[in-house]
């Protein structure tokens, strides 16, 4: 177990504005477009599956790998978006890439 600091915990949950259900459905939708059939627990990107795992855990149950995934997602969203995370339209491929890690640019951030 790892002690994730408040800043990372809060920022991860701010930038990941899709629910676990929304993210899982999106990953399944994306996988349905592939030429092969993934196993249900292997759909989507590795990072997307890591986000799902974090969303399904209590803070006290997080691992070092979970913390690394959280930092990766926060950094990725910040590199692609303005800090205010106001809903922004963009190219579909850009939106879909961000959605694969739990951030829908058309939704407001979680408060």
Description:
With 111 residues, the protein is mainly α. It contains five helices and no strands. Helix 1 (6-15) packs across helix 4 (64-80), helix 2 runs antiparallel to helix 3 (46-55) and helix 3 packs across helix 4 (64-80). The protein is globular and about 40 Å long. The two termini are 26 Å apart.
Distance between the termini: 26 Å
Discrete helix count: 5
Class by SSE composition: mainly alpha
Q: Quick one: biggest sheet? A: none
**Cα shape:** globular
Helicity range: 40-55%
Beta-strand content: under 5%
pLDDT under 50 segments (min length 5)?
Answer: none
Task: Please tell me the overall pLDDT.
Answer: 88
CA-atom Rg in angstroms: 14 Å
Order of helices and strands: HHHHH
Q: What is the β-strand count?
A: 0
Looking at this protein, list some descriptive labels.
single chain; 111 residues; mainly alpha; 52% helix; 0% strand
Summarize the SSE layout with pairings.
Blueprint: H1 6-15, H2 20-32, H3 46-55, H4 64-80, H5 92-99
Helix pairs in contact: 1-4, 2-3, 3-4
